[in-house]
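Lab notebook, page 48
Experiment: co-folding of the full assembly
Goal: obtain a model of how the components sit together before planning crosslinking
Operator: M.T.
Materials (sequences as entered):
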Amino acid sequence: MFQRIFAVMQKELRQLARDRVTFGMIVGIPLMQILLFGYAINFDVRGLKAAVVDEAGTSLSRALAADLEATGVIELQAPSPSVADLRRRIDSGELSVGIVIPADFERRRLDPERAAVQLLVDGSEPMVDGVARSLASVPLPARDGAYPPRTGFYSIYTEFNPERRTAVQIVPALIGVILNMTMVIFTAAAIVRERERGNLELLITTPIRSWELMAGKLLPYVFIGLLQATLVLVVGTLLFDVPVNGSVLEFYLAAALFIAATLTLGLLISTFAQTQLQAFQMAFLTLLPSILLSGFVFPFDGMPKPAQWLAQALPLTHFVEMIRGIVLRGAPITDLGTQAAKLAVFLAIALAIATRRFRKRLD
Amino acid sequence: MTRDAAIVARGLTRRFGRLVAVNGVDLTIPRARIFGFLGPNGSGKSTTIRMLCGLLEPSAGTVDVLGYRMPQQAEELRSKLGYMTQRFSLWDDLTVRENLEFVARVFGLTALERRQRIAARAEEYGLGPILGQRAGTLSGGQRQRLALASATLHEPELLLLDEPTSAVDPQSRRDFWESLFALVHRGITILVSTHYMDEAERCHRLAILAEGRLVAEGVPQDLMRDIPAAVVEVEAADTAAARIALAGDPAVLSVAQLGVRLHVLIDPAAESPEARVRERLRSAGVEARVESVGASLEDVFVAATGFRNGPEAGREVA
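Observation: model returned without errors.
Model output:
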């Protein structure tokens, strides 16, 4: 009995050692996880992008802004001239926190009935709201030192998500996670399967061109992807009351761009993977950092810089920003041009590599 | 000859790393004939066929197929070429009709052509009753007929068949060869690789490959007539003893067993081979009936692929 078990064990280990991709995953996945969770994932969020509208313009208001930045929780950007401009910058995703110091700041400071400072918080991103609330414990400065904080010094407005529900932050971005998962795996597996089963050898000897074959294989998934996006959004709206503040057309434009990028990633993986298992593993390898680093669960600005750079190379990062902007903040797609451009660059580069590698030959 | 040839290869070579899979093969394959590639596994048959249809790039040498230079002009050749892979490579999860429809569309046939050709092939290859069946559920013979129907949908001028009968029963093989002759009558050139002697014998011309080299080429009957060895058949009750007795003779090039009979190839330079064998066996005390016979294709194959004088000699063709 033991001899037979041992024989099977030995065979398994031999086969495993010969599948270099799978073997690499045994080491690669735990290593990547520990690095991601250890370095990138940070519940201690710091460096949220913020800007001040200082209508008071006194030395005390400037001291307050400096005190808030000194906490490290926020990183002040160029000040805004008006509240309207501040809101626009929050809509476009440039800022996570807006600080409004009203003209009568000095008087309000002394009035226990009125808030002296307004904090506008982007409620579309996870955790930002809670972090911004910690700013409210920063004492207000005074000429002869600092007033101890009292309740009501700060009034906090959680924009786009006043009830501070997690579903509102999660659902739109979840569309991206789901698309990333299915599009990459479906296409990579669909192409590798034909190579594995020998179908490709037959296809190569027909007059079909490489790009015709690729287009024919990818286009059905564009429709499947749009269907999935619709499904998640409709369920999110009906069941979880997720508001759709932006244009539905722009939602589909962003989704289509992201679907194109993820399909191309799947295509690229298919040119490297020899078996469906390998394709699946490679897809998983891109999915894991996408979920953790894209801003889906942790605020993007709160991550350390190297994690942010890495996240720039992941299409999901840009889509999460775009989709929260469109769906929750009602930002016009023109304000999200940077993210769209980054997605397009990813698409172009991945497509160029994939086309070069996907040739109609066996060698 | 060269002008009318379907395929002309000169010095065709393909290396995979340090392995030379095909080594300096020269070939001229005439039109409207069945040309056979005979050789054991690993002799370079599939690699050669793949170079002929542009799937693999030759490491050295040139190939012209129907006047197109491979692999540079592979795309122009596609619509005139039918290729049947060694492994069934249609889609298991599509029905017979869906598979044929798909291939016909890929080859750019019009709706009318598609309808007519699929009906014609279904009739020709007996696919009518199974048109609605998924390809994955077909028997070996049915799959092979489907593959042939699919490879001929676009009416190619040249058919490349890579071991088409390796997974089918003898009856299906016979039917399959009848279909091939029908195609040749219509003017199609067929290149077929095989490791079956009976199939090789049916070809108009035959090339024998061994270890990537072309070791013999010609009409099968000529090859058998001109074999560079004398063939003696030995029938003995104790074939093992007969083998041992013959193994010591330097003029014996190879011994192959067929049931109770041995096929002995003798150096053509040796005088009266039949008497030589008889004498050899008698002195060893082996009782046997000895007779000179004509060479079979298997003898030709053994002679061409190098003599191995031992207990395994000549049998491991498959």
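Interpretation: The longest strand of chain A covers residues 48-54.
Next step: discuss with group before ordering constructs.
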